[in-house]
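Subject: Protein record for review, amino acid sequence with backbone structure tokens
Why sent: The fold of this protein is of interest and is recorded here as tokens.
Notation: Tokens come from a learned vocabulary of local backbone shapes, not from coordinates.
Attached in line: The record itself begins immediately under this heading.
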Amino acid sequence: MKLRLICVPCLIIHKVINFLLLYLMIGMVNQGFAQMYEEHPKYSTSASRITSTNSIKEDVFYRLECAFENTCLASNLSGFKVIKRNLNGSFIISIDPSDLDSDALDLKSIALFETDNAWKKSSNITIAENEYLNGEYWLAIEDEQEWSDFEIREPRISTISDFGKYEKVLIQSLQLEHFLNKEFVTYIEKVSAQVKSEATVLDLNLHPNRINTIQAYLTRFDGSSEKVSIKEPFYNVSDIDIAGRYANTGMASEFTDSHALEMTTIIAGNGNSSLNGLGVAPAVIHTSSSNEEISPDPAEYFNSNAIQIQNHSYGIDVESFYGIGASLYDQQVYESPEILHVFSAGNSGLESAAHGKFQGLSGYSNITGNSKLAKNVLTIGAVDTTMKIIPLNSNGPSFDGRIKPELVAYSMAGTSNSAAYVSGVSVLLQQSFRDKFNSAMPSSLVKAFLINSADYTETLGPDHKTGYGSLNAYKAMLQLEDEKFIQNDLVDNEEKKYSIAIPENAVNFKATLVWTDPPANPNDQIALINDLNIRVLDKNAQYHMPWVLSAEPNIESLSSAAVKGTDHLNNIEQVHIEKVESDTLEIIISTENPLESSQSFSIVYDWEAENDFSWTSPTFKDNIPYNGETVSHIRWESSYLGEQEGDLYFKLIHESDWSLIEEDISLRAENYRWDPEMVNDFAQLKMAVGDKSYISDTFSISEPLRLNVGFNCTDSLSFYWSRVDQVDDYALFNLQGTEMKLFERTQDTVITIHKSDLSSSFLKIQAFKNDKSLIQGRVIDYNLQASNCFLQSYFVEAIQGNGIKHSIRLSSFSGVDKIQIQKKDELNDSWNALAEIKANSFSFEFLEEGPNNGFNESRVIIYLNNGQTVLSEIQSTYFVTDDNFILYPNPLVLEEDLKVFAKEAKNRAEISFYNMQGLHIISFPVPNDRNFVDLSSLREGLYIYRIKDTNNQYDQGKILIRN
């Protein structure tokens, strides 16, 4: 049986302190050191302190504390095992008596206290659950055999799933104390609430994060060699933007929803439908994995299917603690370092944590789900088009003060979309690395590229709301293409040094260190295990330290700007030097604590040339507005320091003079909202900075053409669209397989097509001018359009005193010879021509004078040039030519209203009903020329009706009513 003790490390690792024990064993602990434990204010506790090894009981937990923080920074203390580590510098350990040297364990030199078992509870165990547990819970099990025996004996527990030493169980009315007192249970956590989508609107814009720039200048990167997993409910894999690239791995949910399709479109859409369907990696293979279980999918799923990126765009409740989910994700990536999990931060930015160090701080530490607080994943927040924080965006810090989210990306519809952008860019980075080195890129290096290239948002350096900045996809790809990275391993207490040559006038030097850290224990209050450090030394012997953020639990500290210092919380560290005053920089990597085994790490570094400027949007492939509809921002990158300003101009490509848009624009903003006149032409932009001018690519200013169905007949179709001035021609595209391909080019705005010539029912139109395309139109499925075979609509209307108006609308008049209106001759049961009209427009009206008194029927026949005809449905109406009233239908079904029509309104008229014996039953007013009478109160049978007012009787007759 093992003795259980509690220990709390000041900074690191579930292995404690070898050299402290060694010091004790060789008798180097003097009376003054021992006295420190008695006098140090941290140890003035009322708990009962253990003063003799004889007092240590079997199967009891204790708390161990160290007088000095640096004494807790060693590797394993012989026989001790870390169970939980706390922020206050203590930790829980278990000790094996067979490995314990009682003579060497001087309890005057360390503080050991008795404790209860409350430390086993996760912070999301509610007050109501402090007595009885009901529902689903996670358990951490130290002894599998003891757990198995207990589970067999306890009918109120059933196992749902297990992940190694972690068990997910269903508990029915079992006392919490019952678990807390079991030595083999070291942690209890309430299972997270049901997952929920964190965006509902597709908000696809590749420009804010410079993804459009990759698609313009680095076109070979489309994701075609990669595979991405979407962990959500299943989605419509036949959607034309993602069809033909789905890999069935057997992990998909039985349920489907549109949110998963939207995330897949952002990551993998190929733009068949429109520019709003063009995603980040338009050729990547995609697959679905159910998120009904939000713990990691098996490593075999990733390895056997060659999946390195998995997107998680869902949330649960705010959870500010390191739970089993966080530990499992950290463990999986530590064991399979090529896997990258990308999580959305959540949309709970106005909430506060209900537990933990930052409890009750509104607007902070409100990320949705403890899995997102893992060290080895990426958690992504959202910003608007100008890189401003969105209030609903969930924010950091993590439960222990770490920087979360690590990155933000554009989205006005929730952090789900932002995570999908980052997943897509990660796919492109993986493709680039595989092309260069014929191997998979470790996730630590992917993270380092994404973080090192990110643009700081509102302040210089990271913060607890936007992490290390906003995704800059193009810059990340360039850093990889230029191979500005280092990968290596650190062993024991060694240092690694790397010399980097820096050109003149370098500014904004960044170096980002990322390592995949071993998993912490669930319920640890500090997650970092291996504490690596980065410093940068210049030729002036000045050390440049990484950014550090305050983790003090108050709003003022959490909102304060980053400073330079030593980081003991994050497994990501970044050094930034605004202006480099050295032609060589030395990157130094070291470790704060001894390492049990080697620790791999990744570094990405880069700099900018001072006083440089480049356009990123629009490129030569882009349009303004970006989708032809939404007012857009133009974007650039500038390395001008300070508050440098420029003057912005534009001109159409055939013009020689530049027109001023605005003066004195801040270059630091790197974006400007521009709403030009819709000219359907090509243009350029110019930014004038002092005596320098920076001219953009030639881009289009145009709006998408709408393709309309003219007619949809059995064997043929016609389409039409609006004319665009001074274009060369129009290109009609048809979906062939999974790709929109050119079907026909024409200078007309109407086209007729045989259906047999089309590969599918999906088509779109695009205009060309000067051999360049204007923006593409949105695809249509002609089967879903409201169109008939030439005749779009035909209806009739009785206009009392004038006649019957016939209204006809054609969907096309191309190929139409004439239109004939025919009238039904009820007496001879035949159709006679009423009017004949030449087809020269879409709409016609014809007034039929002198129609029949009473019931009238008519129809339309369209005569085509090819000899075929199109026949409309029959239309009917009632017309009154004399002073009598017309009643219909007769016989009348009780569910129908009786129509009582007159030539003109008779204000005092009423209709009365009598039975066949002449007894009056009921009367109704009929003052209008169109009256509708509800006779549901009458029984089935034959009735006499009379219509009259105070002076005149207008009509009488019989009416049959039946069910």
Remarks:
- The two ends are 87 Å apart (CA to CA).
